[in-house]
Amino acid sequence: MILRVGTGHGTTFAREETVEACAALVGGIAERAGVTEVTVDNPMLDGFFGYTSEPWRPHLPADLHGFHDGARVPLATGLTFLRVMLRRLGPWCRLRAEGFLVHVGDRYDVYVTGTERDEARARELGLFPVRVDRSPYDPALDTVPEQRPADEAFWTETADLVARRGPLLLEEEYVRNGRRWHPLATPTDVTEVRARLGPRARLALWPGLTEDREELRAAMRRHPEPQQLVWVRRGRCEGIRLAEEWMLDDRDRYPMIPGPAAVVPLVAEERTPMLAATLPDADGVLRARWRTDATRADERRAYLRTLERGDIVTGVVATGLDDVGVHVDLDHPLGANAGFLRVPEMSWEHWDSLDDVAPIGRAIRAQVIHVDFEFERASLSVKALQPGPTRSP
Which pLDDT score is estimated for 145? Predict the structure, then answer.
């Protein structure tokens, strides 16, 4: 049977003792089932819980060895992955073995194959187990599109396109939301890059590497949805940012984007690469099953894209002062911490204490003044809806 093991923390960060209790429960279940190794399934670096997660690198191998689709890792390594997921440090995956499945859900609940004995053990550890028919992320429920294998025909076509239209840009998605970028100026570059690609990576070939700033600005304006700006220096990808036109300003002595760059759409519906394929395994068989189901973070991003400057929203102050403002839970199923109210936007009137204008739990009505896709939140202003000092009520 499948157990959904609640941690009692809802959408807040799981405490360390809860993380260790879950790891102990899952480790015990796996050991009793004779599991010594687990297979990593559909890993992603971020984007399951949120696109602005805490840094994960101190918690996983620097080269991400063992964190790719189909990787077989020792159970102890799998439990490390589980701890990282429970701490919401960014990465997510399913861990599988014969008759065994475990992963973290979107509310700090753990879905794991178990028995009545395991259910009782979970309660002993202070957890909250419930029997369910299946996990909402059961592999059988995955939406998997048809995939072209990156075989010899794909690489021949890629080299031909580079020879005729280069330089081009190869996107390597080695895990979901984890990308490397490879400029291809000559067919020789294609051969060299091919040898460096990660197992089961998704590949996309993009046009548009150019130093023409007007061409890049025009590409940004054609697509209102979020896009990535990828720039290259000395034959290597030097940087990636969410694209904004100010980045292309060449008036500074040291411009932010010093060389060739390309604009690449982020939203799936906008993505139309020249070629796309998935790397087969070493024996030539395509086994990767890249799921395209929307995660909660994908749905949250879609919600943020519906907000525009000037929109009026309501919500509840969710936190005390965080650096220069407070986080706001907007009145929407995906609105948790989706608003940010900075101190200067709280009121026209002088105030001495935050409790005077934005205490935790206060319902507010505010205007959207900016949607920041890099930080995944909407900047709000309460005072924009108040009579200003030079306006009559």
Answer: 83
